[in-house]
Structure formats: structure tokens, C-alpha cells
Design goal:
This protein is mainly α and 195 residues long. It has 2 domains: 2-149, no CATH class; 154-195, no CATH class. Helices cover 86% and strands 0% of the residues. The termini are far apart.
């Protein structure tokens, strides 16, 4: 019957069970960070010389559409744009892939993540499910169509990311401020202004 069948866990009190759960979450997060750090160093050691030029050249030759397609396919296969982006972070961080070539892959990941919603919408009879799934598809597609075709517009997020990373490398607290402003303050401001 799940975790309660494990003797150690079944003997825990409710408060101990919660403390144990929090401890496991902290340990899991620590392992994620340690794993990402090791992925970066291992990729750099194993593949940098072999793949660096080939991957960047292939994506540069094939153009952004190939990279967008790669992002869509990877995301469709793993059913998560977060996984695709998390894979790209150590690859770009180790110098195997340039940020300019990684950017269209992330755009493709944003399109690829909509496929999951479309597939899930087929599981319900109500057309509202498909409507919201298609809204997701069109929203992400229009975003890519607006951002990617014009090089000057395409370079804006890449250049902003580069500048922010240089600033954050010198002052780590800027990353925390960025996350708080982008994911907490701006959405709250939007709710206050538009309600």
C-alpha cells in the first residue's frame, strides 16, 4: 500500500513524516544541482573537442528552422520543454553549442510543448479542451513568428540574456531579483492593473 508498507516510514508520526518529506525534497534538489554541475564538467571533458564545431556548423548551415525542428522533436519525445531547456543549459555552458544556435531550439521547445496539450485534449469529449490546446499552439507559434524571422528582433532576447549573465556572474543576487521581479512582481502587477 505505497510508502506505508515500508517499515521505517510507517512508524513515523505525522510531523516526522512531513520533516522527512522536506528533507527528501532538499536532498533531491541538491542532487539535481550536483548532477547538472557534473553534466557540465563531463560534457566539457568528453565531447567539447569532438562535437563543438560539428554541432554549431550543422545548426548554422541548416539555419534556425532546423534548430526549431530539433527543439520540437526533442520536446515531443520527452514531453517537456523544461527538460529540453535543462539539457541545453549544460551544453551551452560547456561551450559545445553557442547561445545563438541554442535560442531557436528553445523556441522549438516552446512549440513542441503544445503537442502534449493537443494530445491530452483528445481524451475529453468537450471541445473546450481542444480550444484551449489550440490557443496554446497558436500563442506559441505566433510568438516564434514575431520573434524569429527578423534578425534584429531575434537578437534582442539573446543579447539581453548575455548581458544579464555577465551582470549575474559578478553579482549573484541579481539572479534572485530577476526571478522575483519576472515571476512574482510583474504577474502581480498585471493582476492589480487589469482587475
Amino acid at each position: 500500500d505505497g510508502l506505508s508498507s515500508i517499515p521505517f516510514i510507517s512508524n513515523l508520526s505525522e510531523s516526522s513524516y512531513r520533516a522527512y518529506a522536506v528533507l527528501l525534497i532538499i536532498v533531491a534538489i541538491a542532487f539535481i544541482f550536483l548532477s547538472l554541475k557534473n553534466v557540465v564538467s563531463n560534457m566539457k571533458a568528453l565531447m567539447l573537442n569532438q562535437i563543438e564545431f560539428g554541432l554549431d556548423k550543422a545548426l548554422a548551415k541548416g539555419g534556425g528552422l532546423l534548430a526549431i525542428l530539433i527543439g520540437i522533436l526533442i520536446t515531443f519525445s520527452v514531453q517537456s520543454s523544461s527538460i529540453t531547456t535543462s539539457i541545453l543549459v549544460p551544453i551551452v555552458g560547456s561551450g559545445i553549442l553557442s547561445i545563438e544556435n541554442a535560442f531557436p531550439i528553445t523556441l522549438g521547445a516552446n512549440i513542441g510543448t503544445t503537442i502534449t496539450a493537443v494530445l491530452a485534449s483528445f481524451a475529453v469529449d468537450d471541445p473546450a479542451g481542444l480550444t484551449i490546446a489550440l490557443h496554446h499552439v497558436f500563442f506559441n507559434l505566433i510568438g516564434v513568428i514575431i520573434v524569429y524571422p527578423v534578425k534584429a528582433v531575434r537578437n534582442i532576447p539573446v543579447n539581453l540574456a548575455k548581458r544579464l549573465s555577465v551582470i549575474t556572474a559578478k553579482r549573484r543576487y541579481i539572479a534572485i531579483l530577476y526571478v522575483l521581479v519576472t515571476f512574482l512582481l510583474l504577474p502581480l502587477l498585471g493582476v492589480v492593473l487589469f482587475n
